[in-house]
Amino acid sequence: MLSDPEVVGMLTTGITVTLRLFAGALAGGFLLAMVLTGINLIPSRLVRAVVALYVEYHRNVPTVVQILVWYFGMPEILPEAIRVWINQGNTEFSFALIALSLNVSAYYYEDIRSGIRAIPATQVEAARSIGLGAVQALIYVVLPQAVRYAVPPIINRSIILFKDTSLAMVIGVTDLTYQTKRIENATFQTFQIFMISTLIYLCMALLISALGSHLARKYPASFKS
Amino acid sequence: MIEFLHTYGMLFLVGSWPNGPIGGFAGTLILAALGLAGAFPAALVIGVARTSGNAPLKWLSSAWVHTFRSIPLIMIVFWAYFLLPVMIGFEVPPFSTALAAIIVYESAFLAEIVRAGIQSVPAGQVEAARAVGLGYFQTLWSVQLPQALSNMIPSLVNQFVSTIKATSIVYIIGVQEAAFSAQQINSIELTGALRTYLVLALFYFLLCALLSRLARRLELHLQNKRLGLAI
Fold first, then answer.
1. Across the interface, do B74 and A177 touch by the CB < 8 Å criterion?
2. Nearest CA to B168 among A60, A130, A201?
3. Of A37-46, A99-108, A170-179, minimum mean pLDDT range
4. What is the spatial distance between Cα A51 and Cα B196, in angstroms, rounded to a whole number?
């Protein structure tokens, strides 16, 4: 099966697309989560309500439905210019990337927020009392501790994100799952190709989780020395 | 919008029932509930094996959990789709195929909840039970599990929410559930896909947000109970 260059080509495309989708959504989601964290600092009830609604929507609606909303629904209301711009590239991939980034950003945002909330207020008070400014206290005292609390859930969410990239196949993104179905249709070697792809997914997910436990060991959340 | 809901509300809620198989959100709920109920006995065994002292059992159960938590559900659905008919020798309807896949997938997640539940029971409880002469299984059955199960309830509700969300993918093999209804409506209407899918999203949103809130309240209730506070 793997001696057929055509099959290998299709499989490589699938892996590449899956990885691009994963990396793109990871980066996009993280940036969006940072922006959300910043926006939520604005002392306005309306802003907070909007952020809360954004988070709740993305957490309570299935990822696949979010992808369908973006791919089938959003082109109706997107401005002409943006639509043309998206259609120039790979339409399916772009919409899947947007949907997955927005989806994962809501979870990352919650993880970052609970990481910051895990730091006792006395830490900030202590930092301020020894003469650090508000920003300095944030950078040198709060964030280094908060990151340690936030990293394990962020890694867990990233594993789920990696698995969720397979949902993009429903709109025809040529990811690993989609390519597996295509290879199956072309070769009828159902068992072999599904075994290969399943093992690829398995290895990648285990790799991410191994990285996660390595980080958790290296940077433990509690500072016991 | 009112007219849209008037025309398609029932299709969203129960699918083509009573003139055909039950589908829509009723189908989603049935699939998720049966999936969790079917996965629970397996999860109980796997979860207990994860906490046992027996090395091969521990290894096997860990392998099961790590494997099925690392594979996308869609892959497991495809496996069930072509493996089930070969294994039992006759065609399997899409609903049963999806159910089998969900049971296998959820058993791994539920097993972790069971394990966490068992480990949340203080070690003193086990020591006390063993000291009064209960054996391993007696201790497990009458001391550890009853306490573990009540600790697990909020997580189980959360897992139910996850399962409801996860089931939305099975429409691709033709199972009649909520996302399938939306697709049907989309092919009847041809236009207004945004409205159709937003209504679908809204239904999921209400259902899952409500259940998540319930889980949070249960969690709070449990915390207060642990702290010995009056509620």
1. yes
2. A60
3. A37-46
4. 24
